């Protein structure tokens, strides 16, 4: 290829890169359901607290039931970014942050796929990635960490191609990752696995060099992972969470099911392509995929890790199996893009205008967070005056909204901080254990409750002396106690909707 004369392959590659990354950006940017998760609220509240105090909290600053309890705020960097995006751009600014992270993830993966895959196959694998990630498109720190996972793994694979250890500068990514999300432990595990692969593949005379180089990279990466406000506690935190018995009570931490699920679609169709032609997967990479499948069966939330790893790790073996004599790997796109930057400028300008236009539309178009199962905004707006400072028994998923609104929740999504005993007791109450409810009410002297309409405790409170339903809609029901009514300012009652 001569300089200044872009080929059709260059144009198709660049169009593929722009279209896939823009599709991810636009989809997330206009997807209001990304705000349906209640945890978004306490993540923003944490970022606000950090900005106001100039430190990362080490104890709970939000709830009234665990105030002052030790807490590892391991996602503090993501939370600070979330607060900054919301503070200066509102909900539109926040969703742009996550749209940008999604675009980065798709761009990173698209560049990798096109080194090994034909255009159609790369497009199909991007569809697989989208199916696997659909359940994880929420405004939470994990979406900011996925581009880091993809970039880290691809950098390790490129190091293996060159038969050398990754550059020590890659540890900077680990430093950011460890302060942004607990999934950094997967990065350490991947480095260990591919380092072992390098050791096994090395000639006997080179093994000492491999041990020295990969070992040094591993030590530097581990040191970067511990360079967090929590130090060793931050490194051990993901393992602590994984061993909590309360995880079985939380939907995203439950085991993944296969029947009529996206995971079943991915596995069955993926096996079809793997068996259709002989595909040779290096042993260590196959073990990595099996380990990712295992943790997905253990906790459905890990599906996003599995599909990201599988898309990247299978790109080369599938590409070689279906290459039909074509060059593999294909020349990297970015150097070609730089060489042809002048000729490709119009296409790149169109791509940038698409991104800029979508971002501008999102920022200038009025947009507010909608009601959802985890975010009963309208219900909270109809809370009678004087109750915000009263102890509340709230739905687990509503706790993030309460913290965001400056109301101390009884519980929220930080179940690791509340612990097994407290969280288990809460879910038994929410499932209608009247004896436990009375014991909790006697201890905490709740002034009001906010629960989903189908919560078992709602029916109990409807017939409970001393409690009165004051508001109800599709998403939440509010009851207040007689003791709270006696001390709260009065206003004309609104009829409760049923």
N-to-C CA distance: 71 Å
Enumerate how many helices there are, as a single number: 22
What Rg is obtained from the alpha carbons, in whole angstroms? 25 Å
Structural class: mainly alpha
The major beta sheet can be summarized as:
4 strands, mixed
Average pLDDT figure: 91
Number of strands: 4
Tell me the helix content.
55-70%
Care to describe what's here?
This protein has 22 helices and four strands. It has helices at 8-30, 39-53, 76-116, 119-133, 141-161, 171-180, 184-201, 207-226, 232-242, 262-276, 283-298, 303-313, 315-321, 333-339, 345-364, 377-381, 399-404, 415-418, 420-430, 434-444, 456-462, 482-487, and strands at residues 392-394, 448-451, 467-472, 477-481. A four-stranded mixed sheet has the order 1-2-4-3. The longest helix is centred in the N-terminal third of the chain and has 41 residues, at 76-116. Residues 491-498 have low confidence and may be disordered.
